[in-house]
Design a protein that fits this description.
Layout lengths: L4 H14 L7 H13 L3 H18 L15 H14 L6 H8 L13 H22 L6 H19 L5 H20 L4 H13 L1 H9 L2 H20 L10
Length: about 250
């Protein structure tokens, strides 16, 4: 299993168990990423989802099945399943080596799932977006950090075009670093008044309300930060620098 199937398998399994199609939100994708980063193997994450949904069905009538609107509902069960999984592995392989294998990738894995041309087209699109941003937003000056992001994206595009193999996991890590830098820079140009408007919108957001009830405070704050980042990207017409957005 390659790097990206971890996400798609969880998404598809949750939709099947829910019993009705639902577009998984960007916040839910961030939650899946947090499971993977914590080392939760795919089979354990799926088991946790099953436990959560089985418990839900046991308590609810069939008419209310569709009310599970966020993967966050399964978070506690996934973490409990992972804790149990680790207990059964005491004295065996280290968590790092084991979870890399179970999650379907290794640190040096390479795959061509998207295809080189598809990745290059995506990079070209993001470069054009940032070039347009610099032209429109900074006509009286320049942003050193955004210029750095643009320069690095051009380097990545050249490396992708000329490389023998396409290491999408390493590429995704690089894009994540650049996305962090880009979002921080763009948010510095947003007024305090607009940030306050977004904060009020976050308080009313239905998905965030679910996360606030289900997640630890630190995890919830990360989700709320992602909400602000999504608003920032929309304001400046910049897509997320992630291969998941292809």
């Amino acid at each position: 299993m390659n790097y990206y199937n971890y996400f798609t398998e969880i998404e598809e399994h949750f939709i099947r168990r829910r019993g009705k199609h639902l577009l998984v939100s960007p916040m839910d994708w961030h939650l899946i990423a947090s499971w993977r980063n914590a080392g939760v193997p795919l089979n354990v994450a799926l088991r946790g989802i099953d436990i959560a949904m089985d418990g839900y069905f046991a308590r609810q009538s069939s008419r209310s099945v569709s009310r599970v609107n966020s993967l966050c509902y399964c978070h506690d069960a996934v973490m409990e399943a992972y804790a149990g999984h680790l207990e059964t592995r005491v004295g065996e392989a280290t968590p790092e080596s084991e979870t890399q294998t179970d999650a379907g990738d290794s640190p040096n894995s390479n795959d061509e799932e998207f295809g080189r041309d598809t990745v290059l087209a995506f990079l070209s699109e993001k470069i054009s977006e940032i070039e347009s941003l610099l032209t429109k937003q900074y006509e009286c000056g320049s942003s050193e950090n955004i210029e750095r992001v643009l320069s690095r994206l051009r380097e990545i595009a050249l490396d992708t075009q000329s490389g023998l193999k396409l290491d999408t996991e390493a590429l995704e890590r690089d894009l994540g670093i650049l996305d962090d830098l880009l979002c921080r820079e763009l948010m510095s140009f947003i007024s305090d008044e607009e940030k306050e408007v977004w904060a009020q919108e976050a308080k009313k957001d239905k998905i965030l309300k679910i996360y606030k009830k289900q997640l630890p405070k630190e995890s919830f704050e990360k989700m709320r930060e992602n909400f602000s980042r999504d608003k920032t990207r929309k304001k400046f017409h910049i897509g997320e620098l992630s291969l998941f957005r292809i």
